[in-house]
Design goal:
Layout lengths: L6 H28 L9 H18 L2 E7 L2 E7 L9 E8 L13 E2 L4 E4 L5 E10 L5 E10 L1
Antiparallel strand pairs: 1-2, 2-5, 3-6, 4-5, 6-7
């Protein structure tokens, strides 16, 4: 015996289908917000007023900076325009994923005579190093380096 398909059946199907869609969207939105790293600065207008001056000072250093992760060691090499290694003071360093702060760490750098090195626990994949340094002449240097760990 077959039952008649009524308007109530159609209503139940529509409410159930859209309910599933709504539940999935809310779940994804909640997870996106919960894993977002957050605000970089409280007032972007104030920061923008100094941006050009800060960038010009950093570019005037003419540093060639690179960062790599190999065998569990984070290596940051800094060279001046003549190719001489530069030992800069690290004021802030954060190694983490681009979209999630759950694996962020603060590397403890040491100078090995040629580069800044730090032991890190970084699985294969894409990482960001947010680095703030002070040059020997007192100039502040800030950059974000994308790194692929191997």
């Amino acid at each position: 015996m077959t039952r008649e398909f009524t308007g109530w059946h159609m209503l139940a199907l529509m409410v159930g289908g859209f309910g599933i869609i709504l539940a999935v969207n809310l779940t994804l939105a909640f997870n996106a917000i919960a894993t977002f790293p957050g605000v970089e600065t409280r007032n972007s207008y104030v920061v923008s007023q100094q941006f050009e001056a800060d960038r010009a000072a950093q570019n005037a250093l003419r540093w060639d900076v690179s960062a790599t992760i190999t065998g569990g060691v984070l290596r940051v090499t800094i060279q001046d325009a003549a190719g001489t290694p530069v030992e800069a003071e690290v004021t802030r360093a954060v190694l983490g994923r681009a979209t999630n702060t759950g694996e962020d760490s603060t590397p403890a750098f040491t100078w090995d005579g040629r580069a800044l090195t730090a032991p890190v626990t970084a699985q294969d994949g894409y990482w960001n190093l947010r680095l703030e340094l002070i040059a020997p002449d007192g100039t502040k240097f800030r950059r974000r380096f994308p790194i692929t760990a191997q």
